[in-house]
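Why predict the complex rather than its parts? Because the way molecules touch one another can change local conformation, and only a joint prediction can capture that. The input here totals 1303 residues.
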Amino acid sequence: MKSLLSLFIVLFSIVLNAQRFDFGKVSEEEIKQKEHPNDPEAPATYIYKKGKVTFTHDKIWRYVYEVEGRIKIYKKEGYEYATINVPLFREGAGSNEIFSNFKGFTYNIVDGKTTKERVENNQIFDIDVNEFWDMKRVTFPNIQEGSVIEYSYTITSPFIQALPEFYFQDQIPVEYAEYTMEIPEYLGFKTHIRERVELKRESSSRLKGLMYSYIPDNQQIKALNANKTHHASVTILFTTIKYSSQNAPKVLQEDYMNSYRNYLTSIRPELEWEKYSENTPVKKHSTSWEDIAKSITRHRSFGEELEKRNYFKSELTSALAGTSSQIEKVKAIYNYVNKNIVWNKFYSIYSNEGLEKAFAKKTGNVAEVNLILTAMLKEANLDAYPVLVSTKSNGIPLFPTNTGFNYVICAVKVNNELLLLDATETYASPNILPERTLNWYGRLIKNKDESEQVEVIPKSPSRRIVNMEVNLNEGGKMEGKLRNTYTDHLALEIRDSYASLSDEKYIENLENRYSSLSVSNFSFQNKKDPYKPLVEGYDFEYTNAFDQMGDKIYFQPSFFLISTKNPFIAETRSYPIDFKYPTQETYMINIFVPDGYQVESLPQSEIFELPGGLGDFKYMISHTDTNIQLRIDTSINSTLVPADFYEPLKAFFEAKVTKLSEKITLSRI
Amino acid sequence: MRLILFFSFIFVFNVYSQKENFQSLMIPSELKEGADAVIRLDEVEVTVNSKRDVRQLQRTVVTVLNQAGNRHVVDHIYHSNSVKVRKAEAIIYDAFGKEIRKLRRRDFRDRSAVTSNDLYSDARYLYIDYTPISYPYTLEISFEISLSNSIYLPNHYFIKGFNVSTEKSSYAINYDPTDFSINYKESLLEEHLVEKTKSDGNLHYLAKSLPAKRYEEYSLPFQNLVPRVQLAPNSFFYEGFSGEATNWSQFGHWFHSNLVAGRDQLPRNTVAEITTLVAGVEDPTEKAKIVYDYVQRNTRYISVQIGIGGYQTIPAAEVDRVKYGDCKGLTNYTKALLETVGVTSYYTIIYGGKTQLGFQEDFPSIEQGNHVILAIPQDDDYKWLECTSQTLPFGFIGDFTDNRNALVLKPDGGELVKTTAYLNEDNHESFSIKGALDDEGHLTASLEISSRGLDYDRKQYLPIYSNTEIDTHYKKRWANIRNLQLNNIQFENDKREVVFKEQVEVSAKNYASKSGDRFIVELNPFSKYTSVPPRYEERTQPIIIKRGFYETTTFDLKLPEGYEIEAIPTVLNTSSPFGDYRVDIQKNEDHSLTFTRHFLLKAGIYPKESYTDFREFLSNTALRDNLKIVLIKK
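Output of the joint prediction:
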């Protein structure tokens, strides 16, 4: 009896729980709740969100995506969640995504009674974003601290290659989330899951009728019934798979982190195969990186485009004039494309208007610029290949999907060494790629059937070497000479920001950055030549360089050169730290001891290391009667540092800035 | 005979010179000086066919000299329900004036101008999608638009921005003087040698060879630095209404009676609710406070750029139902609620933005405003309410609408009134700090900071952030303090007195920099002034300090046992026309010292010649804020 009762209670609570996450079942407690039980700071929470995908067939397949959710708003900062944006893709008549069946309500408690208000049709706005995107924007009425809103809508879409991506997490907590797919036996999907909170999986199968329509392609019927649509029904097996999560915490954007979206628990199903009967062959869609690479290569706007070579013949001949070695040829062609075909800031793995047209217009998207480069290199009998990559903004491509790659660069083999090229960026050079591409791995396309993984993150460090010599004068003023050398990515970053500025403007920026600095005899060497280190040199005067009190002088020997701010200020960290590329910085500082003074105290030389060989800091100082010599080296050897290392990393930078702020005391003899 | 020949020669010459050449190489060097782009030609002709049909013909040719100049290119044509594009074409030339691309109307792309701040707007634009392949290049655009309203007439700027010069710019307006008349205002035309011709029903301006202007900090708004003509109709047609605007009073009257009045009915239960809330309260200001609080609690701001062309307010009953609205809707709603409880208030049009662009007394025109607030008359003055904010205290408007002329719509006419100014000592940030340094050089301190005026405005948002964000906020604000830890943070927002109080406890490991047996200790880490304005080789504009501020600090610092003061710097106090800076260090009996600091920056207009002194005043302040003492081990 007892066990029966407890069974009853269990069942009952399951039913209750299930009901709690149904549309319209808003409880009074939810509206009265003042703060989130697990996260009192949350401005709002999803009480639940659901997505369900089913399929229809009307000449073509379409998926029907039913979305619903309930959001509790605790604070004014959560009001933004009371506006919903639904982007809809459109390609043209017949292949647009359709938005329908919107229902939305706001719940409040007024004088102890629950009120429910509907979103009227005139509160749904249609925003015509551009030729590819449409957007529905809905805002809920009567939002107050405490309001609960509920919505449901349907999107019908012909783009079944990729089903909508569903996020189980957001920047606010998600108490319950559920994603369901009901898939007919004709279609097979591969599901890519990023699981940072645990997902529960349930599946079941059943037979069900599928209504479908088609235009017969039998010639005789066609003659009689010209293109008439036929309707039929068939009973087939449907498999339902449901993923659900409970109490997913919020995910916030942090500094030195690529997009927070990369860290949300999410699901993204992609079409893997179609099979209509025992007798018809399985139509395979991409499932591995190898397959993806293959399908992209066979795409008209990728592979075929690479084979056309006639349009650039004469330009190629003149670009190659006077070159003999392979490396000279590579540089000549790279420089030609870099200078002559301007990137229009669009990312794509496919050419848009075709390489020939882009070549004539002298501008194109990423694929056009770098495929022209690849084609020209090939035509010059060089061993060149396109390389597919995913940019940082596209996220880390953990799963093989068609959208996993969004960018193409080029690889060329010279003397058995692989050089990576990206001609979209004015000051990039072989193996020095723009930062956006330095993400994970790329896929080098050998030929129609073969591809291989290549590393795009640089292994050798970018360097900065600073030589400075200073004299301390009266009144806190110092005079000195400085030479600043940058290589590789550090040079690329400076060139990107400053190469187009005049020296005068650059000096103005420099002087305004350090307000007591005034610069003379400025020179920039190799300002626009990406093949050489960038060297900046100048003489300077700096006021407020040291403190003079009584018969003593106090100063920080790195002066204004190195920041003494710790970049890592947050107390804890949950995501990897992205340093972009390895770096090595060296400062060599020579300070003349002014006449009549002697060194009273110097900081001690010291070395700190990060665990796991991730990096180190060396502070070496010495003096004679006339000179103080300081050398500071900092290296960061790894680019993506796991969050576990945050504490030692923060402590490392803390120790570094404390060391850098130690002062030298000089006293009058 | 000779004479005729001479004339025909001139004629031929003229025709030749009119065939324009947009070679970039032909640009005179004085127009390239400091310019990222050159307006080769900007030709605007406005024709008023009737009050319901205004045409604007424009041809603009811009040569872009470098990448930074791309922002000066005219490649957008805005349109909406009341502004239709009738013709549009464009040509792009290379540096030699050779045509690279030609665009017809259908080659323009069309896009919604809705921003993420707007819920909805019918504004759209046509634009040219062009990636510059080399510099310089030239873009020529020609278009015709028709406006079905005449409340607004296109203005003309002969210089269109900073770092862009003008080779030739002309503006003409034609109208039938028997049917239409205009009011216009010219600014800085003579200084820039802009030629003008005027006849009945026609006005024409021509400017040539205007060099580029450079942005300078602490100067007048752009609008007041460049030659321009503003135009407005004396009588107009707007979305079904006819109106007159020969002066502000008349225009205000028209606006009020056609676009605001009669949209203030409220449902009975709301009337009952608000009546209950103010029951027993007699004082009108107290009643108004209750109503303002009610609006702040119950509504939210959403920009909805619809309704009649964007000027008519959503009815109060609609705002009451959905509990959101734009500035017009929320202001009108508040006004309706106040009316219900017997408090008079006026709908007020204003320019909202940090730049204080007030309505010009001698020139009534609607496009000077972009925002709406509410004015409650009180004695001889007004209390101003920002109805789109859910947090601002009653009667406090901050720097979005401060100290500028606004148009107060009274039923019998509009009136220009200057809004509240927050100046100098009004903007007071005061620091009271007690701290101790230990013999390792670590600092612990507790701070009480109170902020008034615009400092209040800046800080009152703090409590909405999460603990992590607040932690980061302080670490960034005091980034000069190494290894800063925040231990306890409390806020108090006193809306009645408009004071925001922060109580913060901090610690900083190795705060004092070591130098052998010495500690070098900064005395003003929490209220350091750092923003020194740039040097200019030649300052061309007067200095404007718009608002000014006042900072006071008292820092009691206990020194570590075992250390004694080796050196205290001599302090220099400055008083200048721009403000005062004063610090003092007192040694106390109990092995502690007290550092005090006063810094006042005074609002005002100062001659351009004093810029060096002004910069020196601020850079000396920044310098002196690094004040340090030296401690030595006993």
